[in-house]
């Protein structure tokens, strides 16, 4: 059985409330329960933090034992050299995901410190971005 971590960064705990026209009205916990049912043959683990160091610690924790990480680092994608370095330092492949199309948004969101060290990037497909990433690991 494959073991996949879904890792969410800052402000993603506000899904369902925050900017519903961009992010929708479903909480991530509701969405996570639905994909756990859909992918019952995969061990899915979910972790969210608004704290950069906690995200790095989680990457280190699973980075040599899990089969994959689906990572939406939120705004840290565009600012955190440390998260990029953490991904570079682990063996578990990471797929960068975004709910919105970051390339259709502000200019600063066009830069990713994760992408150079990621297996791939999926953006702009709403919550389905996570399932597309999950399918790539299966």
Distance between the termini: 10 Å
Sequence of secondary-structure elements:
EHHEHEHEEH
Share of helix among residues? 25-40%
At the first level of CATH, the class is: Alpha Beta
> Number of DSSP strands?
5
Specify the biggest β-sheet.
Answer: 5 strands, parallel
Low-confidence stretches: none
The radius of gyration over CA amounts to 14 Å
**How many helices does DSSP assign?**
5
> In terms of structural class, how would the helical and strand content be classed?
alpha/beta
CATH topology: Rossmann fold
Query: Quick one: overall form?
Result: globular
Order of strands, main sheet, comes to 2-1-3-4-5
Count of all domains: 1
CATH H-tier superfamily: Dehydroquinase, class II
User: What integer is the average pLDDT?
Assistant: 93
Give the CATH architecture: 3-Layer(aba) Sandwich
Give the DSSP E fraction (strand runs of 2 or more residues). 15-25%
Which secondary structure elements does this structure contain, and how are they paired or packed?
Elements: E1 3-8, H1 20-23, H2 28-38, E2 43-48, H3 52-62, E3 68-72, H4 81-89, E4 94-98, E5 120-123, H5 128-137
Parallel strand pairs: 1-2, 1-3, 3-4, 4-5
Helix pairs in contact: 3-4
Structural description of this entry:
This protein has 138 residues and is of the alpha/beta class. It has one domain (3-137): Rossmann fold, CATH 3.40.50. 33% of the residues lie in helices and 19% in strands. It has 5 helices and 5 strands; from the N terminus they run E-H-H-E-H-E-H-E-E-H. The chain has helices spanning 20-23, 28-38, 52-62, 81-89, 128-137, and strands spanning 3-8, 43-48, 68-72, 94-98, 120-123. It has a 5-stranded parallel β-sheet with strand order 2-1-3-4-5, sandwiched between helices. Strand 3, helix 4 (81-89) and strand 4 (94-98) form a beta-alpha-beta unit. It is globular. The model has no long low-confidence stretch (mean pLDDT 93).
């Amino acid at each position: 059985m494959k073991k996949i971590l879904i890792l969410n960064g800052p402000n993603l705990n506000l899904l369902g409330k925050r900017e519903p026209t961009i992010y929708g009205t479903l909480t991530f916990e509701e969405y996570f329960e639905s994909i756990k049912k859909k992918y019952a043959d995969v061990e899915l683990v979910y972790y969210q933090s608004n704290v950069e160091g906690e995200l790095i610690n989680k990457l280190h924790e699973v980075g040599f034992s899990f089969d994959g990480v689906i990572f939406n680092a939120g705004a840290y994608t565009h600012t955190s050299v440390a998260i990029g370095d953490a991904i570079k330092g682990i063996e578990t492949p990471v797929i960068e995901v975004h709910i919105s199309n970051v390339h259709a948004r502000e200019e600063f969101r066009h830069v990713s410190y994760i992408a150079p060290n990621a297996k791939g990037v999926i953006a702009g497909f709403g919550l389905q971005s996570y399932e597309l990433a999950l399918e790539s690991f299966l």
